[in-house]
Amino acid sequence: MIPAIGELSLILAFIFAIIQGTLPLVGAWRNKTTLMNLAVPTARAQSLLILVSFVVLMYSFYANDFSVLYVASTSNSQLPTMYRLAAVWGGHEGSMLLWVAILSIWTIAVTLFANNLPDTFRIRLIAVMGLVSVGFLAFILFTSNPFDRLIPAALDGRDLNPLLQDPGMVFHPPVLYMGYVGFSVAFAFAIAALLDGRLDNAWARWTRPWTTVAWMFLTLGIAFGSKWAYYELGWGGWWFWDAVENASFMPWLVGTALIHSLAVTEKRGAFKVWTVLLSICAFSLSLLGTFLVRSGVLTSVHAFATDPSRGLFILLYLVIVIGGALLLFALRAPNVGLGEKFDVVSRESFLLANNVVLAVAAGSVLLGTMYPLLIDALGGGKISVGPPYFDAVFVAIMAPGLFLMGLGPLAKWKKASIPEIGTRLKLAAVISIVSALLVPSVLGKISLMAAVGVFMGAWIVSTTLILLQNRIKTKQLANVSLVENLKTIPLAFYGMLLAHLGVGVFVLGVTLVKGYESEQDLRMEVNDIAKIGDLSFIFKGAQKVQGPNYISSQGKFVVTEDDKQIALLYPEKRFYPVQGATMTEADIEPGVFKDLYVSLGEPLEKGAWSVRIYIKPFVQWIWAGCIIMALGGLLALLDKRYRIANKNLTSKAEEVF
Amino acid sequence: MKARHKRFGLIAVGLLLLVVAVVLFTKSFKSNLVFFFTPTQVASGEAPKTGNFRIGGMVEEGSLKRLPDGLRVEFKVTDTARTMQVQYKGILPDLFKEGKGVVAEGSLNKDGLFVADQVLAKHDENYMPPEAAAALESAKTQKAKDATVSNAMEGAK
Predict the structure, then answer these.
(1) What residue ranges define each of the domains in chain A, with the CATH number in brackets?
(2) Which of A13, A79, A335, B41 could form a cystine bridge with B37, CB 3.0-4.6 A?
(3) Count of A–B CB contacts within 8 Å?
């Protein structure tokens, strides 16, 4: 009975979403207040109904209701409760429901917090979000209903894919979707602005915080996914240029460009058309990502068993949304105007360069991801694009961008001088060059890639610190204490500093792990010792351990450095009887400077095992960098300017940085 | 320098960067395209003799053997029409199983043995890598075609 409530709420939500997406738009166009007034209540009703059905599905999982087909195929009564709840998004149908559930959270947030916008604009914004919701609800109801019944009910479920039985499953999908779906708000802002004919500094200021939140979640979501792949897949990689990873990375690149171009639009009124285009692209790429993951065209950990009609539906939706948005853009954008002029050397130019670099990078990833699909669709056979392509092209494109990151924030708006920036950055240049020479020689292997990477990382970190010092110096003239001085600097500025520092930390992590990781495949008998550098890994044999829904062979490794024990590692090989699946659970001793990583291969004769041992220097810096970036976003978001600006529409934005 | 000259310089630099980027793109792109072949195609010599390519099909039942060094394994991949021997060093993915779909990337060594440096297996019980499915499908249609041809020949006799 209860699952029926879920299905009914979804159908009602669909009806409300149709009203929300159409009538208020007509009202805004014809200036009919009664129709416009429908937007907020229908949006809230629609969102709440979706959340109800989401909770119902979650309850069905919790209560092991195997009369629901989806529950029976992705859960099992032996599955620990935490994973039973996370199993809600462990398959296709539930993932889609999670998508709309998160969209409804964003919709409710918009109805609550975006209440200081001009009326017609706000109504259009909410209506556009309703249209986005209509498409997804139709998709769920017509092709992938999670409430389809199984009669008679199954005795027990087929269990969640063991690969997904991990704490990562609890966080990665919802956080990532918060980011993906969050760009729908920026998209709705752009469409509403095009409909409204209103594209000014105020518009950019309203959009900015929403975009920043989405970007923050996307950053964290990608980082969680990467970390999860690192410890779960058992081969120690943190990024594979897998098409699905690329699908989440492209919106991130475009979203990052969008954040920067919004800054220009807000401060200088320039880049308006470009900013709108980026908003449309960021969300389109999110949709494309959903399509890639859900249509089954890819070989990937994320590809659940799928059927082609779904792929076709999403493709159609994609064409309507992207095509419609671009058509509207083509009709309206030429009337927008260009904004204030700027010199060739100015902060605007640097931000333009940033945008070009990020857009080209996203384009290169898109090419590598879509090309094989395109060739296959045209009957040209099956091909794949190897990670070396992405590594080479991506690094080559991003390197100049990273260098400019050091210069841009120091440049003045409108007109800047290169010699002036140069004198300020002498020290940073010295620090970076010295570290580029020093770090590789200390780590024992000198390579050009490592030197360039360390230079970039050190450059970003040192220029960012100089930026802060500079800011304090300019203020110091007013004779206030350092603390007072630091307090007067707006949070948005600290946010920018922190996010840039995060990029520096990330670059250092990537460079050092790429340049100095080591890997060994070994056959180890009990008490065999594997020596890697100063470290010895002693294999103490494996024993059987019983888990809640699996049986495990658990190996024991003692790691010593100079005869001192520094770590005990227990990698496992688990067997999940319900799905008959074997899973490798690596064990990792994480550290600031290096991770020790051991995974078990297969049992060989006489208690011996095939074993893989990795040393991963500075790998934690990669995710630390991402978290620092996201914290930067959070600081920027807390800046009081947005709240003041929202309350007082006419107030001129204060010059922040 | 006049503003006009500056702008001209900027456009020139931009175009230069664009050319460099395009050259880099195409070069790196071409050298990193990995093509896919079915065991039948490999058997008929269509696959490159040097360089990486992908193969796909099913792991033949009972074909998985571990070499004496304990690290290398050999198994056979079949598209039901033809079968090929594959060697791999390292730890096989968790969902690698005999009788199930597999995709491997690697190259032929000088004895004509396919040495894989990457093995991709299916990710859940029902999932077949599209490449592997395609290999099986093309072998099936080929067989059907052969059957009609031989039937026709029988009929002609």
Answers:
(1) 1-165 (no CATH), 425-516+619-657 (no CATH), 518-618 (2.60.98)
(2) B41
(3) 112
